[in-house]
Amino acid sequence: MEKSKFVIEGGNPLRGEVRVGGAKNSVLKLMAASLLTPEECLIHNAPRITDVEIMVEVLRQLGVEVTWEGSSLMINPGEFPSREAPYQLVRRMRASIIVLGPLVARWGEASVAIPGGCNIGSRKIDMHLKGLAELGAEISTEHGYVHARAPRLKGTHIILDFPSVGATENLVMAAMGAEGTTVIENAAREPEIQDLAAYLVSMGAEIGGAGSPVIEINGPCELHGTEHSVIGDRIEAGTLAVAAAVSGGEVSILGIDPGHLGLPLEKLREVGVEVEEGEDRLLVRAGEEYASVDLATLPFPGFPTDLQPQMMVLQSVARGTSVITENVFESRFMFVDELNRMGCDISIEGHHAIVRGVGALSGAEVCAPDLRAGAALVLAGLVAEGETHLLDVYHVDRGYEHLETKLSGLGAAITRVGAVEEKVLPQV
Ligand code: UD1
Question: What is the reported pLDDT for 415?
C-alpha cells in the first residue's frame, strides 16, 4: 500500500465557511472520566481522529463497551473487568496515562504502561504520581508499568510544581474517589479542564474552581451516567485561522468559543490579520502585509504551545524578525529544518527560534515530525510557490479530522495520495 501523503499546490486564497470538530484534548479525558461510573455516558461532537480511536481501544481493552453513533460516542462501562492499560496502546498515544486516575478512583488499583518519550521531548509523569501518592495511593514502577494501589483515597492539599494539564486532570479524577476535600493548587486552567469539570459535574461530582489555579473537590463522588457535548477544538480553529491568514483569504470558522483563543487572536491582530469574534464563530480576514511579533508559549491563558509551529509559518511570511520562545516542551522546534527546506530562514538558540521573514516560500518534499508541526507544514504548503509533498501525514490524522477535506472545501489545492495509514507512532 502506498504511504499516505498530502500533495499541496500553493497560492490559492482560502474562502468560505468551515466548522471545527470537538476538541481532541477534551474528548480523550471525557472518555477516561466515563470509567468513573457503571452507567452509560453519551459524548456528542466527538472527532473521528486516530487519537480518539486509540482511546476507544484503551477502553475496550479494559472491558468497556464503546460504540460510535455518527459523531457521538456511547460508553457503557458497567463493572468492566480489567485494571490495565497495556504498553501496545500507551506507546501509540501517551495521553492513555489519563486512565490512571479514574481506575484508581473506581477500583482502588491500576496498572498503566509508562509512556516513553516522544518527538517533542521527554514527557514525565512525576507530578501525576506524586499527587496520587499524596491522595494515599501506593505507587510502584516495575517492568515498564506504573502500579497504583489504594484501598482508600483521602482528600488532601496538592500543590503542583507546574500547571500540567494531564496531571491536573488525572488528579481531579482520582479525587472523585477520595474521602473529604481535595484541593489542587497551581492547577492547569485550560478550557479542556473546564470541559472535564463540567462533564464530571453533570455526572454528579462536586467540583469548584475549574478554570482557576485552585480546584476543590468534595469526595467521594457517586457518579452516574451523563450526556455531554465536547467543546470545539481551539487548536484546530487556530490552525484554520492561520491558514486563512497565510493564504491571503477570508474564512468564517464555526463551532468555536473565541474566548478559548484570547491571546492567539490578539497575536494575529498584532501581526496584521483582521479577526471578528462572534458567539461561536470567528471571521478571519487576511491583511495586506504582516508585521513580526514576538511570542512565548505558556500554560493557558498564555500562548498555546500547540499553535506555536503554525504561528512560525505566519511569521516567516511577515516583514522583519521575530523571536518565538518555547517554554512548555523542550524539543518542539524539530520541524524547523523542514520549514527551512521550504525557504524559511529560522535559527534556533536554546528554546528560542529566531524567525526572519522571507516573503515567499517554495514547495518541497517535507516530512511531518509530529502532529502540530505537520499542520504547520500544510500551512507552509498553502502559501508556497509550486508543489509541496508532505509525508508521514498519519501524524496530522492523529488530531485533525480530514484536514485536507476542510481545506479543499475552502478552495485549497490539497489532495491525499494513498490510503489513511494504520500505523501510529508513539507521540504527544
Ligand atoms: C497536554 C496536551 C498537549 C498540550 C499540552 C500543553 C493532551 C492530550 N495533550 O499535554 O496537546 O501541548 O497539554 O498545553 O491534552 N511535565 C512534567 N511532569 C509531569 C507532567 C508534565 O515534567 O508529571 C512537563 C512535561 O514534560 C511538559 C510540561 O510539563 O514539559 C507540560 O506538560 P502537560 O501540561 O502535562 O502536557 P500534557 O498533559 O502531556
Answer: 97
Task: Determine if the pTM surpasses 0.85.
Answer: yes
pLDDT digits (tens, 9 = 90+) for 378-398: 999 999 999 999 999 999 999
CA of 298 from ligand 1 middle (Å) equals 11
Separation of CA 302 and ligand 1 centre (Å): 14
Which distant-in-sequence residues (6+ apart) come within 8 Å of 280 by Cβ?
A: 232, 254, 255, 256, 257
Q: Answer yes or no: is pLDDT of 75 > 80.
A: yes
Instruction: Show the domain range for 269.
Output: 5-21+232-417
Average pLDDT of span 248-276 = 98
Measured between alpha carbons, how far is 199 from 203 in angstroms, rounded to an integer? 6
- Assess whether pLDDT exceeds 60 at residue 318: yes
| 161 Cβ closer than 6 Å to some ligand 1 atom | no
Decide whether any atom of ligand 1 lies within 6 Å of the 125 Cβ: yes
Asked whether residue 188 falls in the same domain as residue 315, the answer is no
Residue 424 resides in a domain:
no
Residues 278 and 335 reside in one and the same domain: yes
Please give the grid coordinates belonging to residue 360.
515567499
- The residue among 228, 261, 278 that closes a domain is 228
Whose C-alpha lies nearest to ligand 1, atom 17? Answer: 124
CATH number at residue 32: 3.65.10.10
- Under a CB-based contact definition with an 8 Å cutoff, are residues 184 and 160 in contact? yes
pLDDT bracket for residue 425 (50, 70, 90): very low
Secondary structure letter of residue 114 according to DSSP: P
Express as a percent the part of the chain with pLDDT over 90. Answer: 93
Task: Specify the ligand 1 atom closest to the Cα of 128.
Answer: 23
Considering just the CA atoms, what is the radius of gyration of the chain in Å?
21
Whether 80 and 127 map to the same domain: the answer is yes
Which residues belong to the active site? Answer: 118
Mean pLDDT of the residues in the chain = 95
Tell which of 228, 257, 277 closes a domain: 228
Q: Are 211 and 288 in a shared domain?
A: no
Task: State the pairing for strand pair 274-277/281-285.
Answer: antiparallel
